[in-house]
Design goal:
D-Maltodextrin-Binding Protein, domain 2, alpha/beta, 13 strands, 2 domains, 260 residues
Length: 260
């Protein structure tokens, strides 16, 4: 092999190695999802300290399908939109209701789930000794009651606008997450709690509490991104579309929202 051929061989090998390095060094985009860490069945931290829930599995599926990685971090719910707006997270996939106030601050995906609010009361011993609800849906929110809600939720807004602002003498007690409200309910510090329906069903399981009725708000959930982030919004919408068209969607719904 003459000098020219040796030189061409060396250059060719170098180019191939360079291409290989670039290929192996390429990384998927990473998006950070802020979640409410105490909002089962949509998002929560399990006993092993790992994020899980319906929305967590959905966003991971979308990431795999659409070619990006997802980092999931807990954020206080009443601070989650400000956290998104300043860029500390990239999206919110955590059971967020789409409403006009929020639409002024963030862009939402197409809706993916519909819910109503649930009224939860504790169970007490009845005359025959059996456990019965302490109140019905009407007496639970009657004048003089103290009602627990998670701070920054649509439950807080609905009760404020539809009861307190219209002169009904109830007191709202605000909590950082709905599980704290349930704990206070069980020991009698509040009379009832108002929570998103699927989450309320999760909350009363294996507890001396029960759902006595719903408030028909017809809320719809969507995933949120920063205003103008059309690239991520389009990725999420396309991912949701593909997921809902696949058998995996029904599996996730049955696992977390119906059969879970």
């Amino acid at each position: 092999m003459n000098f020219r051929n040796v030189l061409l061989f060396v250059i060719t090998c170098g180019l191939v190695m360079g291409i290989a390095v670039v290929s192996f060094g390429a990384q998927k985009p990473m998006y950070t999802d802020g979640i409410d860490a105490a909002f089962p069945p949509f998002s929560y931290i399990d006993k092993n300290g790992d994020p899980t829930g319906f929305d967590v599995e959905v966003i991971k599926w979308i990431g795999r399908e659409m070619g990006f990685d997802v980092k999931i971090v807990p954020v206080d719910w009443d601070a989650i939109i400000p956290t998104l707006k300043v860029g500390n997270i990239d999206l919110i996939a955590s059971g967020m209701t789409i409403n006009p106030k929020r639409e002024k601050q963030v862009d939402f995906t197409t809706p993916y789930w519909k819910i109503n609010l649930a009224v939860v009361v504790r169970e007490v011993a009845g005359e025959d000794g059996a456990q019965v609800p302490q109140y019905n849906v009407f007496s639970a929110v009657a004048p003089g009651r103290t009602i627990g809600v998670q701070r920054g939720t649509t439950a807080q807004t609905w009760l404020q606008e539809n009861l307190i602002d219209k002169g009904v003498d109830i007191k709202l007690k605000l909590y950082d997450n709905f599980l704290l409200a349930i704990e206070d309910l069980l020991i009698g510090r509040i009379d009832c709690a108002v929570i998103d329906g699927p989450t309320a069903q999760s909350a009363v399981a294996d507890r001396k509490a029960t759902i006595v009725g719903t408030i028909n708000t017809g809320e719809i959930y969507g995933y949120a991104v920063r205003k103008g982030d059309t690239k991520l919004l389009n990725l999420l919408n396309e991912g949701l579309k593909r997921l809902q068209a696949s058998p995996e969607w029904e599996k996730l719904v049955n696992k977390w929202l119906i059969g879970g």
